[in-house]
């Protein structure tokens, strides 16, 4: 049985006039509904799970009727709402180092502040922390810290790293075995719900449909002009599928509507929609590596669209799965497919694979170059990015540039520095177009106060 | 002619090995017989038995320390990433690691993990392997995975030397390392009993010698040191007995260890060069070798921030044991700057110590930290406060 409620149709009064906004509206509803479900979980007698975005097992968690929280999403939502700065400082006052990942500190700060979530509702303490150890070591410490402070039970799903650029059979076996013998029995015990593999298959069928539509949306950026922004816009598009909604009919519907809208824009030869409306002429096509900054998200995006720069593809839009390279949840082999999903997310790929992927994007999306947004918090993404930059430049001959910001720590977003850097980068792209033998861009260091 | 006391001679030899960033000892070992190979490994742990069984020299690469000028390495790392990957790259890019025929990057954190891929890109002609270790401690699950990972390494090394590695060879190497671990345990027990006789600055150098010497040479050296230092009475001071925690990957400069000692602390336990003490007791050397190495890893190995603890109750147990066995009066948390694992672990461990009434202090360092005065002052104040409280 699917316990998630059916899709909340937009209210006619609020429903926007133009069709393009339907998907956005649907997404807002989805998000609000999830926070609502979390807030009322105790009253509704539902157990609560928390897990991480990369390689998350949403379909599996739904099999046990959990209300599902994703601490990274809470942190980024708090960042966008400019609430994370205080949370981080509270965590630092509580003894956390200024050096460590700010997602963790934002989450711990939120818990210290009475667990008031991004929408203002109080979030319940999770009954189970599903520690899917995928693509990031900090995840482990993060949940150990929550467990230490709040006594929540933790269950580990260790996902081996694709160090050789492929999934070896023993890696898949290891993950499946953990699912069967550790994760599923724990989820059964904590939830009191018996595992039903057919229910899992049903959710996975829904996932695959949505995944198909998402890929069509992301690949629409191969067109000129691109009808989407594959970074700033894509973070909205990936929201439902990378979080608590993948596998629900609502998510499937969302992606269906979204795809329709994007294909319509494509037919009309339109560029992306920005917070300020339709984007002007497409002057630069970029590939971006690294997560965005959330505390100044709009300001950051504006620096791009004001200059006519559109991001045609980004690695961040693949943190929750490399669907564009063919992966789909497979209901015929549910557990193996869940394992492949976990193993395949972007930050679980080795550096050579990441370089290959970026070069492929530059080629297939006819990009002018690569921009790396290096995140202070995130060793998983950031360690090695300067080599990625060199390699991509060397292989593609396209200019690359490097900026430094943070995810949710407002102290590490220096608008003036980032803007300067971007402007000179765009200049360089322009020059490079003029001459076939442009010099690669000199890399310089941190954009910070 | 004045005779150098044996203990001094041993430490001078270790110091020379430590200072030699060109790994001359490794080159000499290789040159001593044709076809010899050396395989490097980074912290925290790799089963060195496998390398040894292939007839190769396992070489611990623990960064460049404070004597290496890092120029190229810095161009690969942002300012907010710890030092060890950049100095290790510097060693590689300046040709100092050319004597290594391969490098192993154990699963410890995202930085070392990503460094394995950088190595694949930058040193294409060398054998490179990311060595994954399980975070699931059930024999039939994490154990099987680990055995398979070791099997891959075993086969790779076998291919490198041109002949498969037999169980008998592995068992022989397990025995060699059992003896090495026993010697290190003796050294640690000796230091905990008489810390004035075995200063940690010396103990540390002995451990570091084990990163470049073959175990057959290192094990007797450790035992010779114990005997030699025991033969020379050294002054006993009323120092505070402390455990160091957090230094399991990027190593502190030797000067920092000396500063802590000079400020009035006896280090009675630590997590330096953990590979030498990762497995806590003897691994049976007469059974299925990979199975036994796996069991030792899963059930009888040290704890560090890079290793998952399955329940809340386990957190801090290992550290508390170190405190108890070493009769320590306090803990110094010394972590590398920007080290997520160590710095995120710290508040949990501090909380456990608080519950047990064990005093602690904390600071950060980098392998090239030059200014020791603030650290000396902090650990001195800490030692004084311990003494004050114990006197009260
Ligand atoms: S280190 Fe990166 S991937 Fe890991 S929790 Fe922090 S932001 Fe996320
Ligand atoms: S010092 Fe810490 S952050 Fe740096 S590589 Fe080692 S474990 Fe990772």
Summarize the structure.
The complex is a heterodimer of chains A (449) and B (392). With 449 residues, chain A is α/β, with parallel strands linked by helices. Chain A contains 16 helices and ten strands.
Largest interface: A-B, 57 and 59 residues
SSE pattern of chain A, N- to C-terminal = HEHEHHHEHEHHHHEEEHEHHEHHEH
Taken in chain order, the helices and strands of chain B follow as HHEHEHEHEHHHHEHEHHEHEH
Mean pLDDT of chain B: 97
Number of structurally distinct domains of chain A: 1
Strand content of chain A: 5-15%
> What is the percent of helical residues of chain B?
40-55%
Approximate shape of chain B: globular
Number of strands of chain A: 10
For the record, give the distance between the C-alpha atoms at the N and C termini of chain B, rounded to a whole number: 51 Å
Radius of gyration of chain B, whole Å: 20 Å
Q: In words, what does this structure look like?
A:
The complex is a heterodimer of chains A (449) and B (392). Chain A has 16 helices and ten strands. With 449 residues, chain A is of the alpha/beta class. Chain A has one domain (22-434). The longest helix of chain A has 23 residues, at 169-191. Chain B is of the alpha/beta class and 392 residues long. Helix content of chain B is 49%, strand content 11%. Chain B contains 14 helices and eight strands. In chain B, the strands form two sheets. Chain B has a four-stranded parallel beta sheet with strand order 2-1-3-4. Chain B has a four-stranded parallel beta sheet with strand order 6-5-7-8. The longest helix of chain B has 27 residues, at 167-193. The termini of chain B are far apart.
Task: Summarize the helices and strands and which ones pair or pack.
The complex is a heterodimer of chains A (449) and B (392).
Chain A: H1 22-39, E1 48-51, H2 58-62, E2 67-69, H3 71-80, H4 84-93, H5 102-112, E3 128-133, H6 138-150, E4 153-158, H7 169-191, H8 197-219, H9 234-242, H10 249-267, E5 273-274, E6 277-278, E7 284-289, H11 297-305, E8 309-314, H12 334-344, H13 351-364, E9 369-375, H14 379-382, H15 385-396, E10 400-405, H16 415-434
Parallel strand pairs in A: 1-2, 1-3, 3-4, 7-8, 7-9, 9-10
Antiparallel strand pairs in A: 5-6
Helix pairs in contact in A: 1-10, 3-5, 4-5, 7-12, 8-9, 8-10, 11-16, 13-15
Chain B: H1 6-19, H2 24-31, E1 38-41, H3 48-53, E2 57-60, H4 84-93, E3 102-106, H5 110-122, E4 127-131, H6 139-161, H7 167-193, H8 200-209, H9 215-230, E5 240-245, H10 254-262, E6 265-269, H11 289-299, H12 317-325, E7 330-336, H13 340-355, E8 360-365, H14 373-391
Parallel strand pairs in B: 1-2, 1-3, 3-4, 5-6, 5-7, 7-8
Helix pairs in contact in B: 1-8, 1-9, 6-11, 7-9, 10-14
Bound molecules: iron/sulfur cluster (2 copies).
